[in-house]
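Work Package 4 report. The design task specified in the project plan requires that, given a folded chain encoded as structure tokens, an amino acid be chosen for each position. We show below one input record used in the internal validation round.
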């Protein structure tokens, strides 16, 4: 019975998708996907009985088709797509919001239209919210809260937010409760499964859709929505941000109260303050001070911590402190991005190349950020990067649209078969948001100029003796590990050879020369590795730092000597 009910719901949802597509002028798409036939076949397979016979010959009424024909002639394609997503509800709205962060997949006009998606919805009754709270927290609300405001502060497709006063050991605390809407988890799970099926269907039925990667986008949406549906992950994000910015004078993140937080309920400190535009219009705050502080916070998140707020729009910013020294509070911490130290270094190289207007270095840095999926013509790639960057970099730094530059470079890289990490596109979105708002409240904002001192400091840290010594130590450890394993591996090979289980066959007359070269390289590698290991160890101990530097220098000279000698021997 459960499978029958599930199948029935899936068919009904697929029928709804079909009708919405027709309503907004996508009837031809629905036809190419074969949705009508699949709905009929699905109804029969689910043993719907008489219900299957009740499906009208035209799944969409004539009025819907007429409306779709009219919209197709009057409304642009990106706008009609946005209307489709809005009609299909919360899961598809979230899909559109995530797609709006992917300039590498979608054209600029589509991105701009999808960014307009808002998931403000009619709030559910407070009685339903109380039921979710008691079920999730496992205790009477009176035991945890002194009061809960029945009127929501905000209502979105996934959750709604209420003010409350938490009973706490340190005394009553003003908090906000983020509570999942009843039944939303089941709705999202069903839609995600259906989205995967639709993405596969689109890629099979419409070959030209591969440039938009429907299956990859569905997978990315699955990961993002799964994280967003688990409020304990947002609580962990808030705690990590608070640690990263401990003692920072201009950044504030809400405290999470774990005793009243579950997967479906998040209880956080209420941040007192004002939204950006209200603070400027009514409370004397200055746009340049806010913009400068916001850029500094975001640069630290991305390039120092490698953990950043991926959606820092004005609605997620709360201002407090004095107008001269504004304090920026960040909320809604469910969508975050992560940068590995290696990727951070590559992106910093890319930013510095852009500042220097070094197009070849910019192309090389962008290539290092991505992963080639096909053979790439580097000469043509560098020429394309120069062409794209020329539109932006031939002007004063403060006039450069930095976010647009990143978007164009990512799109160009994708066309050359470079797969750009999703978190890099999130960086572009975050920078685009901050830059857009920043230049609105401070037309003279120079994002690259504000970022320059941060990058200079990070470069000094990258090439500091401590960082270099640590990198050398890790390299030496890996090399030492390989040297330790080599004798055992060689013994196993010799044992195989002695017992006759291993045979070597070669018809290359230069095999002797190759073996000789391999032996020389192996010996040189062991010597250089030993010098690196000992030198790095000595360098990290103050009394023997000079001796360690000498050993490291000897390792470099030995490596250079071997390279030169190896090339001469051929």
């Amino acid at each position: 019975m459960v499978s029958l009910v599930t199948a029935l719901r899936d068919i009904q949802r697929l029928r709804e998708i079909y009708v919405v597509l027709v309503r907004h002028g996508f009837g031809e798409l629905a036809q190419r996907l074969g949705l009508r036939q699949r709905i009929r076949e699905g109804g029969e397979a689910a043993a719907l009985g008489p219900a299957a016979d009740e499906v009208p010959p035209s799944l969409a009424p004539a009025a819907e088709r007429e409306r779709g024909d009219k919209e197709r002639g009057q409304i642009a394609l990106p706008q009609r797509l946005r209307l489709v997503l809005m009609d299909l509800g919360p899961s598809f709205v979230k899909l559109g919001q995530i797609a709006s962060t992917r300039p590498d997949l979608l054209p600029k006009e589509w991105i701009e239209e999808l960014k307009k998606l808002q998931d403000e919805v009619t709030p559910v009754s407070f009685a339903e919210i109380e039921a979710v709270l008691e079920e999730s927290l496992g205790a009477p609300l009176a035991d945890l809260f002194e009061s809960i405001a029945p009127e929501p502060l905000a209502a979105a497709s996934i959750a709604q937010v209420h003010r409350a006063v938490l009973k706490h050991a340190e005394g009553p605390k003003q908090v906000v409760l983020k509570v999942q809407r009843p039944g939303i988890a089941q709705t999202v799970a069903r839609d995600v499964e259906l989205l995967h099926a639709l993405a596969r269907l689109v890629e099979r039925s419409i070959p030209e859709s591969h440039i938009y990667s429907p299956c990859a986008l569905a997978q990315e949406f699955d990961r993002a929505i799964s994280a967003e549906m688990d409020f304990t992950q947002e609580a962990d994000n808030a705690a990590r941000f608070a640690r990263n910015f401990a003692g920072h004078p201009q950044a504030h993140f809400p405290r999470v109260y774990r005793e009243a937080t579950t997967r479906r309920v998040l209880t956080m400190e209420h941040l007192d303050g004002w939204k950006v535009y209200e603070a400027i219009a009514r409370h004397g705050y200055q746009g340049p001070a806010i913009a400068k502080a916001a850029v500094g916070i975001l640069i630290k998140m991305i390039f120092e911590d490698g953990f950043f707020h991926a959606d820092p729009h004005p609605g997620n910013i709360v201002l407090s402190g004095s107008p001269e020294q504004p304090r920026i509070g960040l909320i809604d911490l469910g969508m975050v991005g992560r940068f590995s130290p290696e990727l951070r270094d590559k992106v910093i190289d890319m930013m510095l190349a852009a500042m220097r207007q070094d197009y070849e270095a910019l192309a090389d840095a962008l290539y290092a950020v991505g992963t080639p999926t096909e053979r790439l013509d580097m000469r043509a790639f560098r020429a394309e990067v120069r062409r794209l960057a020329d539109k932006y970099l031939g002007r004063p730094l403060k006039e450069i649209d930095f976010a647009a530059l990143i978007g164009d470079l990512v799109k160009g890289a994708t066309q050359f078969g470079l797969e750009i990490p999703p978190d890099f596109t999130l960086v572009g979105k975050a920078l685009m948001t901050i830059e857009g708002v920043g230049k609105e409240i401070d037309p003279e904002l120079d994002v690259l100029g504000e970022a320059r001192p941060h990058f200079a400091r990070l470069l000094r840290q990258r090439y500091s003796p401590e960082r270099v010594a640590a990198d050398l130590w890790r390299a030496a450890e890996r090399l030492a590990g390989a040297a330790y394993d080599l004798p055992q591996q060689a013994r196993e090979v010799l044992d195989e050879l002695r017992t006759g289980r291993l045979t070597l066959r070669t018809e290359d007359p230069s095999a002797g020369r190759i073996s000789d070269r391999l032996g020389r390289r192996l010996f040189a590698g062991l010597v250089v590795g030993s010098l690196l290991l000992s030198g790095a160890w000595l360098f990290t101990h103050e009394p023997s730092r000079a001796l360690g530097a000498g050993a490291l220098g000897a390792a470099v000279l030995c490596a250079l000597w071997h390279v030169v000698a190896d090339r001469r021997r051929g």
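DSSP finds 24 helices and twelve strands in the chain. Validation will be extended to a larger panel in the next phase.
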